Amino acid sequence: MKKISIIGAGRVGETAACIIAQQEMCSEVVLLDIREGAAAGAALDISQSASYFGSDTRVTGGTDPALLKDSGLIVITAGSPRKPGMSRSDVLDINLAVINSLVDEVLKYAPDSLLLLVTNPVDVLTWHAWKRTGWERGRVFGQAGILDASRMATFMAEETGLSAKDIHPLVIGGHGDAMVPLTRFSTINGAPASAFLDDAAIARINERTRHGGAEVLALRQVSSAYIAPAAAVATMVDAICHDRRRILPCVCNLDGEYGQTDITAGVPAILGRNGIEKVVQLPLDDTERSGFQTSIDSVRADLK
């Protein structure tokens, strides 16, 4: 991919841009932010590290939405972050107005791009962005499940003492407290994760996974998580830019999958150069299906 633009030069956007540039996933990265100098300064800082990482990716930044022109992929991280004690839904009204404005800029300057939403509440905002663009559903998607799965992997590694490299967890549902960690579909180097974890450990892991972001926020106080979210963004960008067709948990617009229609939620999907190529349907048991429905109901409540 030639050009990727990231709207929002805050900590998530800046860190994601740095990873993407260092790994040379594209020829050019553009950072866009309404704060004068914020995007340009971040871009210059990243550029000055290029010689150490052997990267020729050009990184620029500014405030002019016209910088989005010719982008193959646009990542939106802009919006109001959570503060301690707030849920993701608490920032919905503020961030919906932000997303609507930004989507209009995307339609004006990069109507042929893919659109990746990161701003919370990501499930609801991805749905609104998709509706506002009028694009086919595979071109508009969100990042959440990859982040939730990486948090689950961390907690599984802590509980088992095994290498995080071998742990492959899966989380579905909305990116909120009702998300559904799927231990039954999680593996450790191909073996079922349940072979290494008792019921009490699984319960602890699931609880920490559901509140992984809040745990970071409570500890840091002055900042929500940004390193792991940026790494999750970069993972998705890598799959798109190199057309890897990886199966990753993404925020997808559902049209009959899992018995859901006209709703957006985290599910495993094939991610490649065209965005979401296919939603992967898993044979959920009654407990998993019930948990997924509860999560969907939470997203629908926010949509209303």
Question: Can you walk me through this structure?
Answer:
The protein has helices at 11-22, 38-47, 50-53, 92-109, 122-133, 145-160, 199-210, 212-220, 227-241, 286-303; strands spanning 3-7, 28-32, 58-62, 73-76, 114-117, 140-142, 167-168, 171-172, 180-181, 187-188, 191-192, 246-255, 261-272, 275-279. With 304 residues, it is α/β, with parallel strands linked by helices. It folds into two domains: 3-142, NAD(P)-binding Rossmann-like Domain (Rossmann fold, 3-Layer(aba) Sandwich), CATH 3.40.50; 145-303, L-2-Hydroxyisocaproate Dehydrogenase, Chain A, domain 2 (Alpha-Beta Complex). It is globular, with a radius of gyration of 18 Å. The model has no long low-confidence stretch (mean pLDDT 95).
* SSE pattern, N- to C-terminal: EHEHHEEHEHEHEEEEEHHHEEEH
Q: Could you tell me the CATH topology label of the largest domain.
A: L-2-Hydroxyisocaproate Dehydrogenase, Chain A, domain 2
Widest sheet: strand order?
3-2-1-4-5-6
User: Which residues form runs of ≥5 with pLDDT under 50?
Assistant: none
Structural class: alpha/beta
